[in-house]
Amino acid sequence: MQVCVTVDVHPSDDPTGILRCNDFLVSRSIRATFLISTTSLKKPQTRSALEEVRRGRHELGTHGHTHSQEEIEALNSGTDGKLGFLGTSKSWFENAFGHSPTSFRSPCWCGLGIPAINELARLGYRVDSSATPQRPGIFSHLPFENPWLFTSRKPHWLTEGFLEVPTSTLLLPLASPSFAMLRRTSSEFFLTLLMWEARQSAKKVLVLSFDSHDFDKDREYRRSRRGWRQLVPSKCGGFQWRYWLRTYKPHKIFSTLDKLFGLLSGEQFVTLSDFLHQFRLRDKDPSEALSERGRRASPLSG
Question: Of 123, 139, 155, 196, which is least packed with CB atoms within 10 Å of its CB?
Fold first, then answer.
């Protein structure tokens, strides 16, 4: 079974957490895809930490520019005129690392409108991991939106040359917020169930999502205050009471993740771009299929 480990990097993330995440993965010979909100790159220490990540043979991609509500609305609504931040994000990435990003994930796994998909493809992105198939909006930051409810659970082409590799989901995404809420035993069952599903098809891949600070056992988490307002869903943030269910003890979060990676021991870890390359060999994207049909139809071919 192939496994994609993805790590989201946000503007508020501490470089120490990024380095400890890298150390954890390198010690287990795991190559991952780090998806960066590119305003993070204006901090020299964060850029230095991500350079260390790159030396660990991980893939670097993007996760929006500011990871803001404005970006979420622009991506989800499909408004052409408000998507300029995607080009800005790509430029910041190229200036920092000297090459263009291939992989993308939207902030908060928000939906992608047709203009956003077309713009990402135009900018040279080749793989996306924003989809959380069959996840109801009430279980997300966007309770009034259900952009991925009927999305295929298998990797599929969004447009020519642009592949969607969904984050593994069963009502909740296979991600660190879910693990913090489910705790260790339920997280193990959750992972085992989605591992079983991924093994049923050669085209499927298990995709897990983490935040860089999840691997920092010394991090202090700020607890969410409880109040009646958290029982009412907000447009961006959803039901805040769900944070009452999670643990805020860093050693317990780390212990759960360590156990989950133990269950994945022996599996084949690939980056999103690695998987894209292998998927192309098995299932040609629409542009390649059209080109091949054109060659076969040409009287000059062969």
Answer: 196
Q: Is 105 helix (H, G, I), strand (E, B) or coil?
A: coil
Q: Which residue has the tokens 């109040």?
A: 227
- Tens of pLDDT, residue by residue over 269-301, are 999 999 999 998 877 655 554 444 343 333 333
Query: 90 and 123 in contact (C-beta within 8 Å)?
Result: yes
Residue 35: CB partners within 8 Å, gap ≥ 6?
6, 7, 8, 9, 61, 62, 63, 103, 104, 105, 129
Q: Which residues contact 218 (CB under 8 A, 6 or more apart)?
A: 250
* 127 bridge partner residues: 103, 163
* 198 CB-near residues (< 8 Å, 6+ apart): 1, 2, 168, 204, 205, 206
Which uninterrupted H or E stretch holds 285?
none
Nearest Cα to Cα of residue 163 among 281, 267, 252:
281
Residue-range domains of the chain with CATH: 2-297 (3.20.20.370)
Strands 156-159, 162-164: pairing kind: antiparallel
Summarised one tens digit per residue, pLDDT across range 207-251 is 999 999 899 887 766 666 666 665 566 666 665 656 656 777 888
Model pLDDT, residue 268: 95
The CA-atom distances, in angstroms, between 122 and each of 14, 32, 119, 179, 278 are: 32, 25, 5, 35, 22
Confirm if 107 and 237 have CB atoms less than 8 A apart: no
CA gap 156, 77 in Å, rounded: 21
Q: Are 133 and 89 in contact (CB under 8 A)?
A: no
Pairing between β-strand 268-269 and β-strand 127-128 as defined by DSSP bridges:
unpaired
CA angle 235, 241, 243 (to 5 degrees): 100
